[in-house]
Amino acid sequence: MDDVALLDALKQRDSSVLAALFTRHADALYRLAVRLLGDEQQADGVVQTAFLALLDHADRFEGRANIGTWLYRVAYNECLMRLRAAPSVSLDDLAGESGEFMPSCLVDWRNLPEEALLNEEAHAEMERAINSLTPTLRAVFTLRDVEELSVSETAHILNLSEAAVKTNLHRARLHLRERLSRYFEGRHT
Hints:
The chain has two domains: 3-89, Rna Polymerase Sigma Factor, Chain: A, CATH 1.10.1740.10; 92-188, Arc Repressor Mutant, subunit A, CATH 1.10.10. 73% of the residues lie in helices and 0% in strands. The protein has helices at 3-11, 15-37, 40-57, 67-85, 91-95, 114-118, 120-131, 135-146, 151-158, 162-188. The longest helix is centred in the C-terminal third of the chain and has 27 residues, at 162-188.
């Protein structure tokens, strides 16, 4: 079914459509929320909030974005509200990065054995590196490189310009490369 048909059925409170939409989008929303919040319980709440908002606002849905993009936007905004309420995150972190980031440590990753890239320790280090990004950079990285959404979709979800998405993705990748280069440099030498 296309989005128009899905919305019509949802307006009629067709539970099978809601179940289908949940199956289609819940995991991706959950991954985004866990990435941003670092808390599985809160991530469950974000997913629930997004789908409740869809039910509550289905009759007012204008169709300017597809349902998946709209759900991402609701989930992202819910994450931001929860982060703003948390005392450990400043509003400056939520605004995004400013200034240029120049890596100081580079490692040629092509020469590393594949096992080193795939082991649990390396995976845990990658998770720590991703979690060290600001919420904006983490959201851009997750939507573009993990969920593989387009620049346009990511910009719409995060209410950023496409240029800002590209810039923030570049900054996120540089930060991750810097952090992971230090890790792999120690393992490679």
